[in-house]
# Entry
Amino acid sequence: MELTRMTAAELSAALAKGEVSATEVTRAHLDRIAAVDDRVHAFLHVAADTALEQAAEVDRRRRSGELLSPLAGVPVAVKDVFTTTGMPTTCGSRILEGWHPPYDATITTRLKQAGAIILGKTNMDEFAMGSSTENSAYGPSRNPWDLDKIPGGSSGGSAAAVAAYEAPLAIGTDTGGSIRQPAAVCGIVGTKPTYGGSSRYGVVAFASSLDTPGPFGRTVLDAALLHEAISGHDPCDSTSIDAPVPPVVAAAREADVSGMRIGVVTELSGDGYQSGVLSRFAEAVEVLESLGAKVTEVSCPHFRYALPAYYLIAPSEASSNLARFDAMRYGLRVGDDGTRDAEEVMALTREAGFGAEVKRRIILGTYALSSGYYDAYYGKAQQVRTLIIRDFDAAFGQVDVLVSPSTPTTAFGIGERVDDPLAMYLADLATIPSDLAGNAAISVPCGLAPEDGLPVGLQVMAPVLADDRLYRVAAAAEAAFTGRWGHPLLAEARGL
Amino acid sequence: MSITRDEVAHLARLARISLSDAELDHLAPQLDQIITSVAQVQEVAADGIPPTSHATGVTNVFRDDVPVPCLTPEQALDQAPAVEQQRFKVPRILGEY
# Structure
């Protein structure tokens, strides 16, 4: 079998048996990147040399009889928001062009310790603000299903890399849907773990109370393997949860939903949702019911206020976090000609270094936090956050998991929403509630919308630290669907 | 109208972002539209509902104060736009006021 078509679990087994070397696996993926990435543009930086060095080291350790982790020798692509020593980290921004961070993110360290091969850094909306990668200063990534469509965002490069077989696994971050939405529109699996379940140390901050690193894979089991490898308490992140990692891999292998109580969220459907998305979602719910789940409808009345609350909370935190880009200690510096003072240089640098969306959000956040408006905007948004958490608590009192479509529509065209921020923001309509509440959620492919032949994602949401339930439900749905289709959904992608 | 062009210019100054007239013309109406839309939160959030700043409920995380190695001066200064005598060299901070 072609190495780039194999799942991470298959590669892991073949590597462990010595049927293939990490060097061969890495080379195959680097060749694939060289063959297709000029069209997909999933990567901002390909680390061919260090990847091959890492692979040689894994091969040497395996030959010497060392017991290695399941991901040893399996390639992974990393969103360019994680700091990586020896590689640039740009966050898709001009202000960090060419920046080489002095330390590794905890997740980078954990990947290296697991022996995963870091292929490079993937494209993203600037500072993770966007739903299409069109806000990257380095040009958009493209959807492997149709190169004229967006791959979603902000972790669109990571999703596109996995969907284009450039990497079996990738890491992203989810602040308002930035893992689940690109996973859905690229026809792959993506998880937002429980907030605090995966470390933010070394993740360049966008909205600190929301940012959550998580995995992408082509199968539910692959996502679970990566989820387990990166998760767990990190003393370097003060919001990291000191609790055992939920048994996500075991749950993905069990894939049993019989007797589970599944709630369909009334408010995450209807107006604004594409008809083909709703019909595929309805079919997914029927499939889960046929597998023995008990399905009921559950109302979460405050979810309709999640989007406006998010667009106050996230920009407010961003306006504070992005103040660190001050042109003094690292990154771009513009206009320092000896006549201008520090504040002028700062303002000129931030004008030149930030793109339109980042400026919009910094100004919006500055507004929401300014005296006189704080109570009416930021304060109210924080209260809505409480109401959304209460909706989840009430719902999880009745059911084990909630389900909805992952996105209101399939992938839209590149350029279609780029100058209409409110239309762009709607892409995260269904994913934002779980970010505000901090609970776990996954997107798993559930078919193609009949009207455009593009992938649709089923979102499953579980309570805080019940991430294993996501994998139980998603794996059961995946098995039933793959059986029905006769092949994985991605086999139908024709963009490349 | 929820926000004027002048207010946007003022906020941009507070956020230390220079904006050209063209950028202001473009941004101000967009921000007005966004703020009008997000103001929906005011419909529902009544008095007496406690605010949530983060979802985990974790408070006051402490650790033992153990010295560990940190960045060397060379590492810390490696990516600086300008360096002089093992320090970050920055533009004038105080004017001749």
